[in-house]
Design brief:
Elements lengths: L6 E6 L4 E6 L4 E4 L6 H13 L6 E5 L5 H4 L1 H9 L3 E4 L8 H23 L15 E3 L4 E2 L2 E8 L8 E5 L4 E5 L3 E3 L2 E3 L7 H11 L6 E4 L3 E4 L3 H8 L9 H6 L7 H13 L1
Parallel strand pairs: 3-4, 4-5, 5-6, 10-13
Antiparallel strand pairs: 1-2, 2-3, 7-8, 8-9, 9-10, 11-12, 13-14
C-alpha cells in the first residue's frame, strides 16, 4: 500500500499483524510482534524489501504482552535495532506477581494462537523490556518525528498507540480488536475507566485509516463517531469463558493497586 510519505507493508506474524513503514532511507516497525516474528521480519527485509536489516531504525512496542513485546528484544540482540516504548512499561511484570502474570500471559497467548490459527510456537519473552527510548504521551518518535506516541491505557496500564497525522494513520495496538467484520474491545480490559478516556482521546484525532494488531487495516470516514460508538462497549458483560479466566489476567501489581484505589474512592 503506497502512501505519499512512505510505503506501508504488512504481513501476518505468529499472532499479530506486523507493520513495517518504509521510507527511502529508513524503516519503522510498528510493534515488535512475538519472539519468532523477529526472524520473519528479517526474512521480509531480505526477500521482499531487498534491503539490509540495518535500515530498520526503530522497533516500537505498544505494550508488554508477549505477542507484542517478544520480537523487539531479539531484533535488538541480533541486529542492534533500538526499542521505543512507554516510559514505565517495565513496571507491568515487576515482582513475584508480575512474574506469575508473565507466565500466564505467555501460556494464554500460545493457547489462543493454537485455538484460532492451529499454530504453536515458543513465545517466551523477557519480562523487562528496558527500552532504549522511553516515550511519554504525545512524544515524537526518535528518528521518525512525523509520528506521535499517545498513551492509551485500558488493556494494560502502559499501552501506547502511534499516530501519523499527515496521512491520518493510527496504529491502535490492542486498544481495539477487529474480529472478522466486527470491532470489539480487547480482553482483558483491566482498566475500564481508563479505556473510556483513551477512546475519548482517540475521537479527537483526525484519523482516516486504522491499523489493527489483530484484524488488519480499516478505513473510517468519521473518527469521532467511530470511537464514541465504541464507548458503549466499555463495561459490557464479557463472554462467560472470558469471565472465567479474568482472574488469571489480573495478577500484575498495578492491577491490584488500581482496584484498591478505585475501592477507596468509592
Amino acid at each position: 500500500m503506497n502512501e505519499s510519505l512512505f510505503t506501508l507493508h504488512q504481513f501476518e506474524g505468529y499472532i499479530a499483524t506486523i507493520y513495517l513503514v518504509e521510507y527511502q532511507d529508513k524503516v519503522l516497525l510498528l510493534d515488535g510482534g512475538a519472539r519468532r516474528d523477529a526472524l520473519r521480519i528479517k526474512d521480509f527485509f531480505t526477500q521482499v524489501l531487498r534491503r539490509p536489516i540495518s535500515d530498520l531504525k526503530l522497533s516500537l512496542v505498544s505494550h508488554m504482552h508477549p505477542d507484542h513485546a517478544g520480537g523487539a528484544p531479539l531484533l535488538r540482540r541480533r541486529f542492534s535495532i533500538p526499542i521505543a516504548a512507554h516510559y514505565e512499561i517495565d513496571r507491568w511484570y515487576r515482582g513475584g506477581s508480575g512474574a506469575t502474570q508473565h507466565i500466564l500471559d505467555t501460556v494464554l497467548g500460545q493457547y489462543s494462537a493454537w485455538r484460532q490459527f492451529g499454530k504453536f510456537e515458543w513465545a517466551w519473552s523477557p519480562r523487562r523490556l528496558q527500552p532504549d527510548f522511553r516515550l511519554y504521551d504525545r512524544d515524537k518518535l526518535p528518528f521518525f518525528p512525523d509520528w506521535l506516541a499517545y498513551a492509551a491505557p485500558g488493556h494494560t496500564l502502559y499501552d501506547m498507540v502511534f499516530y501519523q497525522p499527515q496521512e491520518k494513520l493510527l496504529y491502535v495496538g490492542d486498544l481495539i480488536i477487529k474480529v472478522g467484520e466486527k470491532i470489539v474491545l480487547p480482553f482483558p480490559m483491566l482498566f475500564p475507566e481508563l479505556m473510556a478516556e483513551s477512546l475519548k482521546r482517540m475521537a479527537g484525532l483526525a484519523v482516516a485509516k486504522l491499523l489493527f494488531a489483530h484484524g488488519g487495516v480499516l478505513e473510517i470516514k468519521d473518527a469521532p463517531a467511530f470511537f464514541n460508538g465504541l464507548m458503549k462497549l466499555v463495561g459490557q458483560s464479557q463472554r462467560r469463558s472470558f469471565r472465567r479466566i479474568e482472574p488469571l489476567c489480573s495478577l500484575a501489581a498495578d492491577v491490584r493497586l488500581y482496584k484498591k484505589s478505585r475501592t477507596n474512592l468509592d
